[in-house]
Amino acid sequence: MAYLPDDTPLPEPTPDDYPYWESHAARELRIQQCADCGTFRHPPVPLCSRCASSNVTWTQVSGRGEVFSYVVVHYATHPALKQAVPYNVAVVMLEDASDVRLVSNVVDAAPEEMRIGLKVELFWDAVPGDTFLPRFRKA
Amino acid sequence: MTTARPEEVAAFADSCAIAGIGQTEFAKRGGITDRTEFHLCCEAIRMAAEDAGLDVHDIDGFASYGPERHEPVLLQVALGIPEIRFSNLVWGAGGGGCTGAVMNAALAVHAGICKHVAVYRSLCQGQYHRYGQYNPGAVGGSYMAPFGLMSPGQKTALPFRRHMHVYGTPVEALGHVAVTFREHAQTNPAALMYGKPMTLEDHANSRMIVDPYRLYDCCLETDGAAAIIVTSKERARDLRQKPTRILAAVQASGEGWGMGPMGSNNMPVETYHTTNAQPVARHLFPMAGISPQDLDCAQIYDAFSSIVIMALEDYGVCEPGEGADFVMQGNLRRDGGKLPTNTAGGLLSEGYLQGFNLIPEAVRQMRGTSLNQVADAETCLVTSGGGGGHKSALILAV
Q1: Please, which domain of life does this record's source organism belong to (chain A) (predicted)?
Q2: B66: which residues sit within 8 A by CB, 6+ positions away?
Q3: Within a domain: residue A3?
Q4: What is the pLDDT of residues B103-132, one digit of tens each?
């Protein structure tokens, strides 16, 4: 069973970011990187903010990181989540992609265990549509 | 203690004034059923014109922001405006564009494009969707909603959590903000929380919404509308009310912010735990020719109580990390505070028109007619926005 219920809204890929989401089906976390100057960027955007190049690579990263900030949701704002509260939402700073952060969840951390600086590692959580979402576990 | 203004903005600064204010009654979401949101919008604009001593047909421009629904061409028909010369909406989904709309109105007047611009905002969360619930159209929603990050409260709590970590900010500071504004609402019969006083204990016992926010850290859901009339300082002198001068008006967003906490949270690490209003402040005070310490009162965007603590730091009222101490020492209070703030109750206790109702209260302070009048107040800061990237602010003066 996934961390959040199956009827939680799923990502809606666009022409700008489908390689990011597509990599999840293969359980690969690929972050958009400028092919010319090497700057990572997230979420994906058409041009590099540093050098304005539109040449990109989708670079696989380790999935190791730490909690940069977090909240614990007690009041659900979507019908699907009424039974899921309390759940955490963490902003995870990836270890090897400049300052790129992912909004995600730490699936095995109780509310009182959450703290900034908590070391986490990638966990592929199966969701509807034969794909996975990048969530995290305590490292 | 006015200082010299930067040459490039010297002509625009202090060139315009707010000549009229209007607001409908405020009701809890769903409380207004006899008139539509559009009807309220028209009423508020008519009231602002009347307050200024203008015929509503004298309006020749319109400005608003965010997801305002009622377009100037429709207002033109309803109000019988002979000709529209300026019609403008500030980009950005949220309240960050609120005082930016006033800036745009003033720019149009200063340029001579038009004479009397109505700046307005109407919002009936009871007639349309609730801002505190999941919004399927949110920009960048794919990066948030699948992980359960859906409402502005959940999103803006993230930078504040980081603020708590970086500065050791006590979570109790939130209660001091909420309780102070609730107290201010007790003299304002228009406020939704009029007659409902609150103690720090009440706040601490209210239910957790999204840790660290409790119920009373979150703004109200309101039905209502408000409007102001912006004109030149010279024209305003000939109208009914004492003009409220617009000393400075600024919009800005810092590099890399994008939608900030309302998006993927990839804004710069160094400014993550701010409201991204530092760029606004950098331009605002030089344009006004005063310093933050010269302010007599303030109306600070308080969609969530945390935003006030962070904004006080961003605007230089206090040093970074000192916002919590500032509010816990009672400095937002009308009686004895260094900077009496949200004197009508703010978005937390008066009503939530996505920041707009802070402007009429700032004008009342400058006219000397606030129900929580700050003695001898001559300047007032008005800020807009707390979540997404775009921010704006005004400095008003008598």
Answers
A1: Bacteria
A2: B89, B90, B92, B93, B94, B95, B96, B97, B98, B121, B354
A3: no
A4: 999 999 999 999 999 999 999 999 998 999
